[in-house]
Amino acid sequence: MKLDGIYEGLHDGLRRRILCLLRNGELCVCHFQEILGASQVQISKHLAYLRARALVEVRREANWMIYRLPDQLAPELAAHLACLEECVRGDPIFRRDLLQGRRLRGRKARSGPQCCTPPISKPASTQLARP
Amino acid sequence: MKLDGIYEGLHDGLRRRILCLLRNGELCVCHFQEILGASQVQISKHLAYLRARALVEVRREANWMIYRLPDQLAPELAAHLACLEECVRGDPIFRRDLLQGRRLRGRKARSGPQCCTPPISKPASTQLARP
DNA sequence: TAAGAATATATCTATATCGGTATATACAAT
DNA sequence: ATTGTATATACCGATATAGATATATTCTTA
Predict the structure, then answer these.
(1) pLDDT tens digits for B90-103?
(2) pLDDT for res A108
(3) Contact A15/B at CB under 8 A
(4) Phi, psi at residue B108, to the nearest 5°?
(5) CB–CB of B86 and A80 under 8 A?
(6) Chain A: closest CA distance from residue B67 (Å)
(7) Best label site of A30, A129, B35, B48, fewest CB within 10 Å?
């Protein structure tokens, strides 16, 4: 594995949070949106960036794209992810990310094939009626 | 210490070679030029980049600027440098760098206050006489 | 087949980075 | 004071990156 790709991947804070989250298990794009509070495009592009460097892998599950760390985790990548996690262990942001990740994974496991809960953005009440 | 700065520093191959070299002891700019085979400006700018992020420190010795890792090495930086070295242990480029670094440090120790040997670029023979 | 949901990509803009050339700075030696 | 040596900085152009908006793709469901 190329070191360049690893450091390029780790060069951005959002991507570091994504990779740390993935260390605890796979997640889909909407999960990342919810946990990281970032836009769909932003998440999708960072994931594409990581994919292009073989730092993550994907599979499709119905409408959802489920991301995970590579099945054959290169030792260099494993080492750097471990190092990163070691360094952010005390960081409240990363701690919160992990908690939320655990929560969402649990929720998905319970709700069956449904991946994401009804969109958090909308109040789930009414369509906004416009003249 | 900011993780951003660390990953910015490690984002470039030359800078990685510089940092690995410094793990074995201090070096001056001309040494880096000789070992890495890069231009003065290139080296100087990469070192400025590392300095701006507190990844290296400098002291002046006559005409020479001697670079070293920070006296108080932040644990995050130490961890990442160890991780990097672990990953490049087998890389012939890095191996050669370390050997050359050791050689140049020895040469300096022997030659006293003189830092660098007479410029390798010039044949040390004649000035080129031009009409 | 049409509509909707989840995700990806295209395009644009602003900014950072990298390397090069030219020039400035700081010190040493004469 | 002048010259030389080692290093740093200014400026320029090419390329990469990050975010935003708009649009395309892919699958599901009615």
Answers:
(1) 999 999 999 999 99
(2) 67
(3) no
(4) -65, -45
(5) no
(6) 23
(7) A129
Residue type, B28: C
Question: What is the arithmetic mean of pLDDT over A116-121?
Answer: 44
Helices assigned H by DSSP within A53-122: 75-88, 92-111
CA distance A17 to A35: 10
Asked if pLDDT for residue B73 goes beyond 90, the answer is yes
Query: Domains in chain B and their CATH numbers?
Result: 3-108 (1.10.10.10)
Q: How far is the C-alpha of A23 from the C-alpha of A84, rounded, in Å?
A: 11
Phi, psi of B69 (to 5 degrees): -70, 155
Whole-number average pLDDT of chain A = 86
Q: String of b and e for B51-87 (b: at least 16 CB within 10 Å)?
A: eebbbbbbeeeeebebbebeeeebebbebbbebbbeb
Please tell me which residue, A49 or B104, carries the higher pLDDT value.
Answer: A49
